[in-house]
Design the sequence.
């Protein structure tokens, strides 16, 4: 598997682990995290509290919120060492869509405050192997903005963006 697919899957796993951890700051009320296949399954009745963690852009639906869209990229190469990919800087953006402003703010603040490092794994085998852990750099957060016509639809009116960078080691 190529490096950026490993990074995307590693970020997805780190988010899922953070959101489902009953011993973490969420306490006895962690999220049930569902994936892309579950999002499209009309017969699924998600167990509350829940969210959908998506790896690609899709228009959110009011009945399938809250949801996090994971966007890995763009990538930048800094001078590090000739002949390696070390020094690659990856921007990660989490688009958080919620049913209410409070849910949006709480989920965004939780991720912003608790994401400090991402373990990068190699997913080429059946059991992912940890390669290294990189610190989260340059975090920022902002409310998403949409045109008035889209905001009236409902699912885009409670949108928050949390972004950060990862300096890869290989």
Sequence:
């Amino acid at each position: 598997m190529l490096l950026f697919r490993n990074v995307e899957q590693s970020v997805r796993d780190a988010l899922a682990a953070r959101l489902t951890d009953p011993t973490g700051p969420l306490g006895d009320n962690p999220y049930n995290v569902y994936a892309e296949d579950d999002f499209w399954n009309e017969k699924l009745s998600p167990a509350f509290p829940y969210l959908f963690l998506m790896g690609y852009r899709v228009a959110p639906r009011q009945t399938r919120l809250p949801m996090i869209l994971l966007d890995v990229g763009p990538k930048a190469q800094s001078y590090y060492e000739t002949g390696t990919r070390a020094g690659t800087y990856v921007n990660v953006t989490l688009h958080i869509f919620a049913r209410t402003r409070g849910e949006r703010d709480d989920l965004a603040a939780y991720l912003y405050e608790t994401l400090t490092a991402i373990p990068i794994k190699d997913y080429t085998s059946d059991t992912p192997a940890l390669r290294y852990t990189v610190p989260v750099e340059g975090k920022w957060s902002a409310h998403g903005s949409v045109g008035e016509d889209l905001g009236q639809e409902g699912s885009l009116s409670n949108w928050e963006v949390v972004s950060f960078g990862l300096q890869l080691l290989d």
